[in-house]
Amino acid sequence: MRRRAARPVNTDTSPEPWRLSVAPMMDWTDRHCRVLHRLVTRRTRLYTEMVTTGALLHGDVPRHLDYSAVEHPLALQLGGSEPADLAACARLAERWGYDEINLNCGCPSERVQRGAFGACLMAEPELVADGVAAMREVTPLPVTVKHRIGIDRVESYDFVRDFVGTVHTRGGCTVFIVHARNAWLQGLSPKENREIPPLRHELVHRLKRDFPALTIAVNGGLAGDEAIAAQLQHVDGVMVGRHAYHEPWSMASWDTRFLGASEPAATQREAVEEAFVAYMEGLAAQGTPWSHASRHLLGLYNGQPGARRWRQVWSDHRLKAERPQAVMRLARQALHQGAKAAVPLA
User: Fold this and answer.
1) What is the pLDDT of residues 234-292, one digit of tens each?
2) 246 and 120, same domain (yes or no)
3) What are φ and ψ of residue 342, in 5° steps?
4) Which of 80, 161, 214, 342 is deepest in the core (most CB within 10 A)?
């Protein structure tokens, strides 16, 4: 197994590590996506897609755990329920230089339920606590839990309060990231589970009031700086998911407005595009198709004149054999042409 020679330096200099983060999203927040996000924001905490303990213990470890050093601060999200397996994976996370281990107790998919982890673990807080304790025993890395406010039709605040209390007192967890919706384990797809159960941010606020010594971050349905600022009046952190992915430039203000930076990571979308194209050139030189990464770029110019034409160029399968630099030139031309076409005649 390939190992890193030395642990990369943690670049998280913000006073509150969980103040802002991008949610772990299956099939979206892969290592290429995270490089793009890091070009827009240096200090926001990033999370991997969920990686199951079985995939790490019996599969290709470098494929699942490798990343670029620029991605720090970076957390590994694990899916699993067996304390011994979680502990073994926690050792791997430390060895590979991650900054945090996050246990998934929120995913409602049937595949995850068959593996006896994800949201169904909220019904077994003692088992979650044992898993957290097992990981904390073998690594000094922060071990955090991401979960829902309830499962199925159980909408009592007492349920999530008792879950957090048990995992904290028995497992020692001090950081909870709370998706402010129930997870319906039957009858809804994962997509529907992100949209149909009602958002109840006030329950997450109540958790912070009841557990003032814990770090409580809220997730679910949040978009835009004003929504983030409003939530930070009640909780310690905000995790943004789909909006950050589809509108990556929305994160450009986060470092200076929320995370104590004196200047933003980037001031122009063009600079982010150019840096990501250089990254894709590197992928191509290594034999990795650059199209594996370019799909994450498509929202960069959202809302700008000409953005649709720009996206069409980057999405054109006929251009996949070209170098990224050549495709960028074509996309820029399309962007400018589209912008001119959008200007109304005097």
Assistant:
1) 999 999 999 999 999 999 999 999 999 999 999 999 999 999 999 999 999 999 999 99
2) yes
3) -80, -15
4) 80
